[in-house]
Each structure stands twice: as structure tokens, then as C-alpha cells.
Write a structure and sequence with these properties.
This protein is α+β, with helices and mostly antiparallel strands and about 180 residues long. It is built from six helices and six strands. It has two domains: about 70 residues, no CATH class; about 90 residues, no CATH class. The strands form two sheets. The chain has a three-stranded mixed beta sheet with strand order 1-4-5. Strands 3-2-6 form a three-stranded antiparallel beta sheet. A hairpin with a 6-residue loop joins strand 2 and strand 3. Helix 1 packs antiparallel against helix 2. The radius of gyration is 20 Å and the shape is elongated. It starts with 7 loop residues before the first helix and ends in a 5-residue tail after the last strand. It binds zinc ion. The site of zinc ion (ZN) has 10 residues, from loops. Zinc ion binds next to loops.
Length: about 180
């Protein structure tokens, strides 16, 4: 039998298989409801990125290497409607260039907790991974900011910052640009 096409088809096949397997603790109704959740979430990401739902589902299904029940959940595909600021990677890059120029090491990010403004250059010059500048407060690395802030977007509280959605429709929570308009 041919493999179902990645996207709606492969998701539906996986859901049916779980239902037919009869090993899930969830009832068929609950599993179908969970599938609807995936479709709704894919639509939300599609709207945020200006593509159609199938494009998102296809990518998610291609990247999914384990059970759909575990793959599709708030922790992996967070509800974007809870965040005022969601942007595609491409738009984010354009915004950064417009605000600070082509050299991304000079792009300025603001810690959502203590308000410290930091650049990737600050991190690079201290021998740290420059990309930490938009996910960790400098205080975590002894590079400035409020001493006991230590804010990170990788923490349990997923607040304060913005989601950037990459080309795989994968969201990353990062700090806002320090000089973001509006
Ligand atoms: Zn901070």
C-alpha cells in the first residue's frame, strides 16, 4: 500500500490508525476532536504566515517523527492568538535590517523582564553564542542587565517576547527588538 501523502492525508491516516488500534486511553470522539485541534492550529499558523493550511500541515507532517498524539500539543505548536506579536522569519529579518542595518551583530534586543538592551555583538565579544542575545537576558551570563533578572524565553513561563515562525512553521519565542515601533 502506498504511503499517504504528507499533510492532511497522512494525519488522517495516523488518526484512523490510532482509533482502529484501540490502544489509546482516549475515545474515538476525543481523538477526532484532537485531530480537529491540529487542523485549527494549522489554520492559525497558515493565517499568520499568509499561506494555506495544507502547506503548514505538509511541513508539520514531514517533520513529525513520532506519534501525532504527542507531536501536536500546545508546547510544540503554541496558540499564537495569545501573543500580540507574531512574525515570519522573513519579515523579522526585514524589520531588523530596517531598524539596525545589515550587520545582525548590531541588532538590539530588549529583555522583557528587566528592560536591558543587548546586542549579539555583546555576546560574541564575551565568547558566547551570539544568538543567545535574543533568548537570554545578559544577566544570565554576567554581561549586564539587572543582576537577578536571569530571564530566558526557554523558561516555563512563555511570556514576554514575540514569536518568530520559521520556514518550517516552527515558532520560536524571542525578545522584541529594542526599538520596535508600536
Ligand atoms: Zn533581564
Amino acid at each position: 500500500m502506498a504511503e499517504p501523502k504528507k499533510g492532511y492525508e497522512s494525519l488522517k491516516a495516523a488518526v484512523e490508525k490510532t482509533i482502529e488500534g484501540g490502544k489509546s486511553f482516549d475515545s474515538p470522539e476525543q481523538l477526532r476532536k484532537q485531530m480537529q485541534w491540529v487542523l485549527d492550529r494549522a489554520q492559525q499558523y497558515a493565517d499568520a504566515c499568509g499561506v494555506d493550511r495544507e502547506a503548514v500541515l505538509e511541513q508539520w507532517e514531514k517533520d513529525r517523527t513520532y506519534s501525532w498524539v504527542n507531536y501536536y500539543q500546545d508546547a510544540n505548536q503554541p496558540d499564537l492568538s495569545k501573543y500580540g506579536s507574531v512574525v515570519t522569519l522573513q519579515k523579522w529579518m526585514e524589520e531588523g535590517k530596517r531598524l539596525y542595518g545589515k550587520d545582525w551583530l548590531d541588532w538590539k534586543f530588549k529583555c522583557p523582564a528587566c528592560g536591558h538592551v543587548q546586542t549579539m555583538r555583546d555576546f560574541k565579544e564575551a565568547g558566547k553564542d551570539p544568538q543567545l542575545a535574543y533568548v537570554n537576558c545578559a544577566s544570565r551570563h554576567g554581561l549586564g542587565g539587572k543582576k537577578d533578572c536571569k530571564w530566558t524565553t526557554g523558561g516555563f513561563l512563555r511570556i514576554g517576547g514575540r514569536y518568530v515562525i520559521d520556514s518550517k512553521y516552527c515558532p520560536r519565542l524571542i525578545f522584541e527588538f529594542a526599538d520596535k515601533e508600536g
